[in-house]
Amino acid sequence: MSRLAQTAGLTDIQQEILATVRDFVDKEIIPVATELEHRDEYPQQIVDGLKELGLFGLMIPEEYGGLGESLLTYALCVEEIARGWMSVSGIINTHFIVAYMLKQHGTQEQKDTFLPRMAAGEVRGAFSMSEPGLGSDVSAITSKGVRDGDEYVLDGQKMWLTNGGTSTLVAVLCRSDEGHPEGTAPHKSMTTFLVEKEPGFGEVRPGLTIPGKIDKMGYKGVDTTELVMSGLRIPANRVLGGATGRGFYQMMDGVEVGRVNVAARGCGVAQRAFELGVSYAQQRHTFGKAIAQHQAIQFKLAEMATKVEAAHAMMVNAARKKDSGERNDLEAGMAKYLASEYCKEVVEDAFRIHGGYGFSKEYEIERLYREAPMLLIGEGTAEIQKMIIGRRLLEEYRLQG
Ligand SMILES: Cc1cc2nc3c(=O)[nH]c(=O)nc-3n(C[C@H](O)[C@H](O)[C@H](O)COP(=O)(O)OP(=O)(O)OC[C@H]3O[C@@H](n4cnc5c(N)ncnc54)[C@H](O)[C@@H]3O)c2cc1C
Fold first, then answer.
1. DSSP string, 201-241
2. Ligand 1 centre and the CA of 263: distance in Å?
3. Catalytic: which of 109, 275, 379, 395?
4. pLDDT score of 213 more than 90
5. Which CATH number fits domain 249-395: 1.10.1740.10, 1.20.140.10, 1.10.10.10, 3.40.50.980?
6. Is 313 strand, coil or helix?
7. How many angstroms separate the CA atoms of 213 and 228, rounded?
8. Residue 379 catalytic?
9. pLDDT band, very low/low/confident/very high, at 184 (cuts 50, 70, 90)
10. pTM for the whole thing?
Protein backbone atom coordinates (compact mmCIF):
# COMPACT_ATOMS: atom_id res chain seq x y z
CA MET A 1 0.00 0.00 0.00
CA SER A 2 1.39 3.40 -0.87
CA ARG A 3 2.01 6.00 1.79
CA LEU A 4 0.61 8.82 -0.35
CA ALA A 5 -3.03 9.62 -1.16
CA GLN A 6 -4.61 7.86 1.80
CA THR A 7 -8.25 8.69 2.56
CA ALA A 8 -9.45 8.91 6.15
CA GLY A 9 -12.91 7.84 7.27
CA LEU A 10 -13.69 5.15 4.69
CA THR A 11 -16.14 2.38 5.60
CA ASP A 12 -15.06 -1.26 5.63
CA ILE A 13 -16.96 -1.81 2.38
CA GLN A 14 -15.22 1.10 0.68
CA GLN A 15 -11.84 -0.18 1.83
CA GLU A 16 -12.66 -3.65 0.57
CA ILE A 17 -13.76 -2.38 -2.85
CA LEU A 18 -10.62 -0.25 -3.18
CA ALA A 19 -8.31 -3.08 -2.16
CA THR A 20 -9.94 -5.34 -4.77
CA VAL A 21 -9.62 -2.70 -7.49
CA ARG A 22 -6.02 -1.95 -6.57
CA ASP A 23 -5.16 -5.62 -6.72
CA PHE A 24 -6.86 -5.88 -10.14
CA VAL A 25 -4.91 -2.84 -11.38
CA ASP A 26 -1.56 -4.23 -10.19
CA LYS A 27 -2.14 -7.70 -11.62
CA GLU A 28 -4.31 -7.17 -14.72
CA ILE A 29 -3.75 -3.61 -15.93
CA ILE A 30 -0.22 -2.34 -15.22
CA PRO A 31 1.60 -5.35 -16.74
CA VAL A 32 -0.18 -4.99 -20.12
CA ALA A 33 -1.14 -1.30 -20.33
CA THR A 34 1.85 0.12 -22.18
CA GLU A 35 1.94 -2.64 -24.78
CA LEU A 36 -1.78 -2.37 -25.50
CA GLU A 37 -1.52 1.42 -25.62
CA HIS A 38 1.29 1.34 -28.15
CA ARG A 39 -0.86 -0.94 -30.33
CA ASP A 40 -3.92 1.30 -29.74
CA GLU A 41 -5.76 -1.89 -28.83
CA TYR A 42 -9.09 -1.96 -27.00
CA PRO A 43 -8.51 -3.70 -23.64
CA GLN A 44 -11.37 -6.20 -23.93
CA GLN A 45 -10.01 -8.57 -21.28
CA ILE A 46 -9.63 -5.75 -18.78
CA VAL A 47 -13.15 -4.51 -19.54
CA ASP A 48 -14.52 -8.03 -18.99
CA GLY A 49 -12.72 -8.10 -15.64
CA LEU A 50 -14.20 -4.75 -14.62
CA LYS A 51 -17.65 -6.07 -15.54
CA GLU A 52 -17.10 -9.07 -13.30
CA LEU A 53 -16.06 -6.79 -10.45
CA GLY A 54 -19.34 -4.91 -10.91
CA LEU A 55 -17.62 -1.60 -11.65
CA PHE A 56 -20.04 -0.65 -14.42
CA GLY A 57 -22.79 -0.54 -11.81
CA LEU A 58 -20.78 0.92 -8.95
CA MET A 59 -23.01 3.98 -8.46
CA ILE A 60 -26.22 2.57 -9.90
CA PRO A 61 -28.76 2.02 -7.07
CA GLU A 62 -29.11 -1.53 -5.74
CA GLU A 63 -32.78 -1.67 -6.81
CA TYR A 64 -31.49 -1.59 -10.43
CA GLY A 65 -28.83 -4.22 -9.84
CA GLY A 66 -25.91 -1.90 -9.09
CA LEU A 67 -23.76 -1.56 -5.97
CA GLY A 68 -25.33 1.78 -4.94
CA GLU A 69 -21.99 3.25 -3.92
CA SER A 70 -21.15 6.94 -3.45
CA LEU A 71 -19.35 9.32 -5.80
CA LEU A 72 -16.39 9.16 -3.41
CA THR A 73 -16.09 5.37 -3.78
CA TYR A 74 -16.37 5.74 -7.51
CA ALA A 75 -13.74 8.51 -7.67
CA LEU A 76 -11.30 6.52 -5.54
CA CYS A 77 -11.76 3.51 -7.85
CA VAL A 78 -11.13 5.74 -10.86
CA GLU A 79 -7.96 7.04 -9.20
CA GLU A 80 -6.72 3.46 -8.79
CA ILE A 81 -7.64 2.52 -12.36
CA ALA A 82 -5.99 5.62 -13.86
CA ARG A 83 -2.87 4.77 -11.89
CA GLY A 84 -2.83 1.60 -13.99
CA TRP A 85 -3.94 3.06 -17.33
CA MET A 86 -5.91 6.24 -17.86
CA SER A 87 -7.71 4.92 -20.96
CA VAL A 88 -9.47 2.26 -18.86
CA SER A 89 -10.92 4.94 -16.58
CA GLY A 90 -12.16 6.66 -19.78
CA ILE A 91 -14.05 3.52 -20.74
CA ILE A 92 -16.12 3.58 -17.57
CA ASN A 93 -16.40 7.37 -17.20
CA THR A 94 -18.89 8.24 -19.95
CA HIS A 95 -20.87 5.11 -19.04
CA PHE A 96 -21.02 6.38 -15.49
CA ILE A 97 -22.07 9.91 -16.53
CA VAL A 98 -24.96 8.56 -18.63
CA ALA A 99 -26.06 6.22 -15.80
CA TYR A 100 -25.89 9.15 -13.37
CA MET A 101 -27.97 11.36 -15.69
CA LEU A 102 -30.56 8.60 -16.03
CA LYS A 103 -30.68 8.08 -12.28
CA GLN A 104 -31.07 11.79 -11.59
CA HIS A 105 -33.24 12.89 -14.49
CA GLY A 106 -34.69 9.86 -16.29
CA THR A 107 -38.37 8.88 -16.32
CA GLN A 108 -39.26 5.71 -14.39
CA GLU A 109 -39.60 3.82 -17.68
CA GLN A 110 -36.15 5.01 -18.82
CA LYS A 111 -34.56 3.96 -15.52
CA ASP A 112 -36.25 0.54 -15.61
CA THR A 113 -35.22 0.01 -19.23
CA PHE A 114 -31.58 1.04 -19.07
CA LEU A 115 -30.16 1.01 -15.54
CA PRO A 116 -30.24 -2.77 -14.85
CA ARG A 117 -28.52 -3.49 -18.19
CA MET A 118 -26.05 -0.67 -17.58
CA ALA A 119 -25.24 -2.07 -14.14
CA ALA A 120 -24.41 -5.41 -15.79
CA GLY A 121 -22.27 -3.64 -18.43
CA GLU A 122 -24.53 -4.97 -21.20
CA VAL A 123 -25.60 -1.47 -22.23
CA ARG A 124 -22.62 0.87 -22.39
CA GLY A 125 -22.97 4.63 -22.33
CA ALA A 126 -21.36 7.55 -24.18
CA PHE A 127 -22.25 11.21 -23.89
CA SER A 128 -22.12 13.76 -26.61
CA MET A 129 -22.13 17.53 -26.32
CA SER A 130 -19.13 18.66 -28.36
CA GLU A 131 -19.35 19.42 -32.08
CA PRO A 132 -16.65 20.18 -34.67
CA GLY A 133 -17.20 23.93 -34.16
CA LEU A 134 -17.52 24.01 -30.36
CA GLY A 135 -16.52 22.39 -27.10
CA SER A 136 -16.31 25.00 -24.36
CA ASP A 137 -19.20 27.06 -25.72
CA VAL A 138 -21.99 24.51 -25.31
CA SER A 139 -24.66 27.17 -25.88
CA ALA A 140 -23.57 27.35 -29.54
CA ILE A 141 -24.70 23.79 -30.35
CA THR A 142 -26.21 23.49 -33.82
CA SER A 143 -27.39 19.83 -33.91
CA LYS A 144 -31.19 19.81 -33.98
CA GLY A 145 -34.06 17.63 -32.86
CA VAL A 146 -37.37 18.46 -34.54
CA ARG A 147 -40.68 16.87 -33.49
CA ASP A 148 -42.52 14.79 -36.10
CA GLY A 149 -45.59 13.06 -34.62
CA ASP A 150 -44.47 10.57 -31.97
CA GLU A 151 -40.85 10.94 -32.96
CA TYR A 152 -38.02 13.45 -33.16
CA VAL A 153 -35.84 13.79 -36.23
CA LEU A 154 -32.20 14.50 -35.35
CA ASP A 155 -29.68 16.13 -37.68
CA GLY A 156 -26.16 17.35 -37.02
CA GLN A 157 -22.56 16.37 -36.45
CA LYS A 158 -20.98 15.60 -33.10
CA MET A 159 -17.30 15.39 -32.22
CA TRP A 160 -15.03 13.74 -29.65
CA LEU A 161 -17.29 10.97 -28.35
CA THR A 162 -15.32 8.89 -25.88
CA ASN A 163 -16.58 5.30 -26.39
CA GLY A 164 -18.41 6.43 -29.53
CA GLY A 165 -17.82 3.06 -31.23
CA THR A 166 -18.16 0.65 -28.32
CA SER A 167 -21.20 2.23 -26.66
CA THR A 168 -24.78 1.19 -27.30
CA LEU A 169 -26.52 4.16 -25.64
CA VAL A 170 -25.49 7.75 -26.38
CA ALA A 171 -26.88 10.77 -24.55
CA VAL A 172 -26.87 13.40 -27.32
CA LEU A 173 -27.45 17.10 -26.66
CA CYS A 174 -29.38 18.90 -29.40
CA ARG A 175 -31.20 22.15 -29.86
CA SER A 176 -34.95 21.55 -29.94
CA ASP A 177 -37.24 24.41 -30.84
CA GLU A 178 -40.53 22.67 -29.98
CA GLY A 179 -42.22 24.88 -27.39
CA HIS A 180 -39.14 27.09 -27.36
CA PRO A 181 -39.70 29.88 -29.88
CA GLU A 182 -36.86 31.76 -31.47
CA GLY A 183 -35.22 34.05 -28.95
CA THR A 184 -35.46 31.53 -26.07
CA ALA A 185 -32.16 31.50 -24.12
CA PRO A 186 -29.93 28.78 -25.64
CA HIS A 187 -29.66 26.82 -22.41
CA LYS A 188 -33.48 26.59 -22.21
CA SER A 189 -33.93 25.21 -25.70
CA MET A 190 -31.73 22.14 -25.48
CA THR A 191 -32.74 18.54 -25.04
CA THR A 192 -30.89 15.34 -24.23
CA PHE A 193 -31.90 12.46 -26.49
CA LEU A 194 -31.19 8.86 -25.49
CA VAL A 195 -29.97 7.30 -28.70
CA GLU A 196 -29.69 3.51 -28.81
CA LYS A 197 -27.40 2.01 -31.42
CA GLU A 198 -25.34 -1.02 -32.36
CA PRO A 199 -21.66 -0.97 -31.37
CA GLY A 200 -19.13 -0.56 -34.17
CA PHE A 201 -18.41 1.82 -37.01
CA GLY A 202 -20.20 2.91 -40.16
CA GLU A 203 -24.01 3.19 -40.27
CA VAL A 204 -24.90 1.73 -36.87
CA ARG A 205 -28.59 2.59 -37.16
CA PRO A 206 -30.56 4.19 -40.01
CA GLY A 207 -29.62 7.88 -40.03
CA LEU A 208 -26.69 7.43 -37.61
CA THR A 209 -23.06 7.01 -38.66
CA ILE A 210 -19.95 6.58 -36.50
CA PRO A 211 -17.23 7.29 -39.05
CA GLY A 212 -14.23 5.70 -37.29
CA LYS A 213 -11.67 6.25 -34.55
CA ILE A 214 -9.94 9.62 -34.24
CA ASP A 215 -6.16 9.09 -34.21
CA LYS A 216 -4.88 10.65 -30.95
CA MET A 217 -1.49 11.41 -29.41
CA GLY A 218 -2.37 9.50 -26.23
CA TYR A 219 -5.42 8.11 -24.42
CA LYS A 220 -5.23 5.24 -26.87
CA GLY A 221 -7.08 1.95 -26.62
CA VAL A 222 -10.33 3.72 -25.80
CA ASP A 223 -12.20 4.76 -28.98
CA THR A 224 -12.92 8.45 -29.57
CA THR A 225 -15.17 9.20 -32.52
CA GLU A 226 -17.38 11.58 -34.43
CA LEU A 227 -21.13 10.95 -34.72
CA VAL A 228 -23.19 12.01 -37.72
CA MET A 229 -26.98 12.25 -37.56
CA SER A 230 -28.92 12.60 -40.78
CA GLY A 231 -32.67 12.21 -40.43
CA LEU A 232 -32.17 10.00 -37.34
CA ARG A 233 -35.62 9.15 -35.93
CA ILE A 234 -35.93 8.84 -32.14
CA PRO A 235 -39.19 7.95 -30.32
CA ALA A 236 -40.53 10.78 -28.14
CA ASN A 237 -40.14 8.59 -25.02
CA ARG A 238 -36.37 8.74 -25.50
CA VAL A 239 -36.20 12.41 -24.48
CA LEU A 240 -34.31 12.25 -21.16
CA GLY A 241 -36.77 13.02 -18.37
CA GLY A 242 -39.71 13.14 -20.79
CA ALA A 243 -39.67 16.89 -21.45
CA THR A 244 -37.66 19.04 -23.86
CA GLY A 245 -35.71 22.15 -22.84
CA ARG A 246 -33.88 20.59 -19.87
CA GLY A 247 -30.89 19.15 -21.71
CA PHE A 248 -28.37 21.84 -20.84
CA TYR A 249 -28.95 21.45 -17.09
CA GLN A 250 -28.95 17.66 -17.28
CA MET A 251 -25.64 17.66 -19.14
CA MET A 252 -24.06 20.19 -16.78
CA ASP A 253 -25.11 18.03 -13.83
CA GLY A 254 -23.43 15.07 -15.52
CA VAL A 255 -20.30 17.05 -16.32
CA GLU A 256 -20.04 18.19 -12.70
CA VAL A 257 -19.61 14.64 -11.46
CA GLY A 258 -17.46 14.00 -14.53
CA ARG A 259 -15.12 16.72 -13.30
CA VAL A 260 -14.56 14.93 -10.00
CA ASN A 261 -13.83 11.89 -12.11
CA VAL A 262 -11.25 13.71 -14.26
CA ALA A 263 -9.65 15.09 -11.08
CA ALA A 264 -9.44 11.50 -9.82
CA ARG A 265 -7.77 10.45 -13.05
CA GLY A 266 -5.23 13.25 -12.64
CA CYS A 267 -4.52 11.97 -9.12
CA GLY A 268 -4.05 8.40 -10.36
CA VAL A 269 -1.73 9.29 -13.24
CA ALA A 270 0.31 11.61 -10.98
CA GLN A 271 0.65 8.84 -8.38
CA ARG A 272 1.94 6.43 -10.97
CA ALA A 273 4.39 9.04 -12.27
CA PHE A 274 5.63 9.58 -8.72
CA GLU A 275 6.03 5.83 -8.19
CA LEU A 276 8.04 5.54 -11.41
CA GLY A 277 10.16 8.61 -10.57
CA VAL A 278 10.99 7.62 -6.99
CA SER A 279 11.88 4.11 -8.07
CA TYR A 280 14.11 5.16 -10.98
CA ALA A 281 15.84 7.81 -8.85
CA GLN A 282 17.08 5.10 -6.48
CA GLN A 283 18.38 2.88 -9.27
CA ARG A 284 20.20 5.35 -11.51
CA HIS A 285 23.67 6.41 -10.38
CA THR A 286 25.60 9.51 -11.42
CA PHE A 287 28.73 11.03 -9.93
CA GLY A 288 29.13 8.09 -7.57
CA LYS A 289 25.69 7.97 -5.99
CA ALA A 290 22.03 7.28 -6.70
CA ILE A 291 20.46 10.34 -8.28
CA ALA A 292 17.92 10.28 -5.41
CA GLN A 293 20.82 11.35 -3.19
CA HIS A 294 21.32 14.57 -5.17
CA GLN A 295 19.39 17.28 -3.43
CA ALA A 296 17.98 18.64 -6.70
CA ILE A 297 16.30 15.28 -7.38
CA GLN A 298 15.10 14.95 -3.78
CA PHE A 299 13.50 18.38 -4.08
CA LYS A 300 11.72 17.24 -7.23
CA LEU A 301 10.41 14.15 -5.41
CA ALA A 302 9.29 16.34 -2.51
CA GLU A 303 7.40 18.66 -4.84
CA MET A 304 5.85 15.76 -6.73
CA ALA A 305 4.63 14.01 -3.57
CA THR A 306 3.21 17.26 -2.17
CA LYS A 307 1.26 17.80 -5.39
CA VAL A 308 -0.06 14.21 -5.29
CA GLU A 309 -1.28 14.76 -1.72
CA ALA A 310 -2.86 18.16 -2.41
CA ALA A 311 -4.70 17.01 -5.54
CA HIS A 312 -6.00 13.90 -3.76
CA ALA A 313 -7.30 15.94 -0.81
CA MET A 314 -9.17 18.37 -3.09
CA MET A 315 -10.65 15.56 -5.18
CA VAL A 316 -11.89 13.75 -2.06
CA ASN A 317 -13.37 16.98 -0.73
CA ALA A 318 -15.26 17.65 -3.99
CA ALA A 319 -16.65 14.09 -4.07
CA ARG A 320 -17.76 14.24 -0.44
CA LYS A 321 -19.50 17.57 -1.02
CA LYS A 322 -21.54 16.11 -3.89
CA ASP A 323 -22.32 13.00 -1.82
CA SER A 324 -23.67 15.21 0.95
CA GLY A 325 -26.23 16.58 -1.52
CA GLU A 326 -24.70 20.04 -1.63
CA ARG A 327 -23.81 22.03 -4.72
CA ASN A 328 -20.18 21.22 -5.55
CA ASP A 329 -19.41 23.14 -8.73
CA LEU A 330 -16.78 25.30 -6.98
CA GLU A 331 -15.04 22.31 -5.36
CA ALA A 332 -15.28 20.16 -8.51
CA GLY A 333 -13.91 22.99 -10.66
CA MET A 334 -11.02 23.60 -8.26
CA ALA A 335 -10.23 19.90 -7.94
CA LYS A 336 -10.33 19.33 -11.69
CA TYR A 337 -8.18 22.38 -12.38
CA LEU A 338 -5.57 21.65 -9.72
CA ALA A 339 -5.38 17.88 -10.24
CA SER A 340 -4.93 18.16 -14.01
CA GLU A 341 -2.28 20.90 -13.78
CA TYR A 342 -0.40 19.07 -11.02
CA CYS A 343 -0.65 15.81 -12.92
CA LYS A 344 1.03 17.39 -15.93
CA GLU A 345 3.79 18.82 -13.70
CA VAL A 346 4.40 15.61 -11.76
CA VAL A 347 4.54 13.59 -14.98
CA GLU A 348 7.01 16.08 -16.45
CA ASP A 349 9.25 15.85 -13.36
CA ALA A 350 9.16 12.04 -13.44
CA PHE A 351 10.06 12.24 -17.12
CA ARG A 352 13.04 14.50 -16.36
CA ILE A 353 14.20 12.14 -13.58
CA HIS A 354 14.35 9.37 -16.20
CA GLY A 355 16.82 11.38 -18.29
CA GLY A 356 17.10 10.12 -21.88
CA TYR A 357 15.30 6.88 -21.01
CA GLY A 358 12.11 8.83 -20.37
CA PHE A 359 12.07 9.49 -24.09
CA SER A 360 12.19 5.79 -24.91
CA LYS A 361 8.98 3.89 -25.54
CA GLU A 362 10.38 1.12 -23.37
CA TYR A 363 9.67 3.18 -20.25
CA GLU A 364 6.15 3.64 -18.93
CA ILE A 365 6.66 7.34 -18.29
CA GLU A 366 6.64 7.96 -22.06
CA ARG A 367 2.98 6.83 -22.14
CA LEU A 368 2.03 8.95 -19.14
CA TYR A 369 3.67 11.96 -20.78
CA ARG A 370 1.30 11.62 -23.74
CA GLU A 371 -1.74 10.96 -21.53
CA ALA A 372 -1.56 13.83 -19.04
CA PRO A 373 -2.42 16.67 -21.50
CA MET A 374 -5.87 15.21 -22.21
CA LEU A 375 -6.83 15.96 -18.61
CA LEU A 376 -6.18 19.65 -19.20
CA ILE A 377 -8.91 19.63 -21.87
CA GLY A 378 -11.56 16.97 -21.12
CA GLU A 379 -14.69 17.93 -19.07
CA GLY A 380 -13.81 21.60 -19.56
CA THR A 381 -10.43 23.23 -20.08
CA ALA A 382 -8.42 24.92 -17.33
CA GLU A 383 -9.67 28.30 -18.56
CA ILE A 384 -13.29 27.15 -18.29
CA GLN A 385 -12.67 25.81 -14.76
CA LYS A 386 -11.21 29.18 -13.78
CA MET A 387 -14.27 30.94 -15.20
CA ILE A 388 -16.55 28.69 -13.10
CA ILE A 389 -14.40 29.19 -9.99
CA GLY A 390 -14.20 32.95 -10.49
CA ARG A 391 -17.96 33.36 -10.99
CA ARG A 392 -18.76 31.29 -7.91
CA LEU A 393 -16.27 33.23 -5.79
CA LEU A 394 -17.90 36.50 -6.79
CA GLU A 395 -21.29 35.02 -5.78
CA GLU A 396 -19.91 33.93 -2.40
CA TYR A 397 -17.97 37.12 -1.70
CA ARG A 398 -20.40 39.65 -3.18
CA LEU A 399 -20.02 43.06 -1.53
CA GLN A 400 -23.06 44.00 0.51
CA GLY A 401 -24.81 47.35 0.13
C1 LIG B 1 -9.70 12.78 -26.02
C2 LIG B 1 -10.92 13.62 -25.85
C3 LIG B 1 -12.12 13.03 -25.46
C4 LIG B 1 -13.29 13.80 -25.37
N5 LIG B 1 -14.47 13.19 -25.03
C6 LIG B 1 -15.63 13.90 -25.10
C7 LIG B 1 -16.90 13.26 -24.88
O8 LIG B 1 -16.97 12.07 -24.57
N9 LIG B 1 -18.03 13.99 -25.07
C10 LIG B 1 -18.00 15.31 -25.41
O11 LIG B 1 -19.06 15.92 -25.56
N12 LIG B 1 -16.81 15.96 -25.58
C13 LIG B 1 -15.63 15.28 -25.43
N14 LIG B 1 -14.42 15.92 -25.64
C15 LIG B 1 -14.42 17.33 -26.03
C16 LIG B 1 -13.91 18.24 -24.93
O17 LIG B 1 -14.89 18.37 -23.93
C18 LIG B 1 -13.57 19.59 -25.60
O19 LIG B 1 -12.44 19.37 -26.42
C20 LIG B 1 -13.29 20.66 -24.58
O21 LIG B 1 -14.46 21.02 -23.90
C22 LIG B 1 -12.70 21.92 -25.24
O23 LIG B 1 -13.44 22.32 -26.33
P24 LIG B 1 -12.73 22.63 -27.74
O25 LIG B 1 -11.81 21.50 -28.04
O26 LIG B 1 -13.78 22.95 -28.72
O27 LIG B 1 -11.86 23.91 -27.48
P28 LIG B 1 -12.39 25.41 -27.59
O29 LIG B 1 -13.64 25.59 -26.84
O30 LIG B 1 -12.38 25.81 -29.03
O31 LIG B 1 -11.22 26.19 -26.83
C32 LIG B 1 -9.95 26.46 -27.43
C33 LIG B 1 -9.10 27.23 -26.40
O34 LIG B 1 -9.74 28.47 -26.08
C35 LIG B 1 -9.97 28.55 -24.68
N36 LIG B 1 -11.23 29.24 -24.43
C37 LIG B 1 -12.45 28.95 -24.95
N38 LIG B 1 -13.37 29.82 -24.49
C39 LIG B 1 -12.74 30.66 -23.65
C40 LIG B 1 -13.14 31.78 -22.85
N41 LIG B 1 -14.40 32.17 -22.78
N42 LIG B 1 -12.19 32.43 -22.12
C43 LIG B 1 -10.90 32.02 -22.17
N44 LIG B 1 -10.46 30.97 -22.89
C45 LIG B 1 -11.36 30.30 -23.62
C46 LIG B 1 -10.00 27.09 -24.20
O47 LIG B 1 -9.69 27.01 -22.82
C48 LIG B 1 -8.93 26.48 -25.09
O49 LIG B 1 -7.67 26.77 -24.55
C50 LIG B 1 -13.24 15.19 -25.66
C51 LIG B 1 -12.02 15.78 -26.03
C52 LIG B 1 -10.87 15.02 -26.13
C53 LIG B 1 -9.59 15.67 -26.56
1. SEEEETTEEE--BPP-SSS-SS-EEEEEEEEEEEEGGGBGG
2. 16
3. 379
4. yes
5. 1.20.140.10
6. helix
7. 13
8. yes
9. confident
10. 0.96
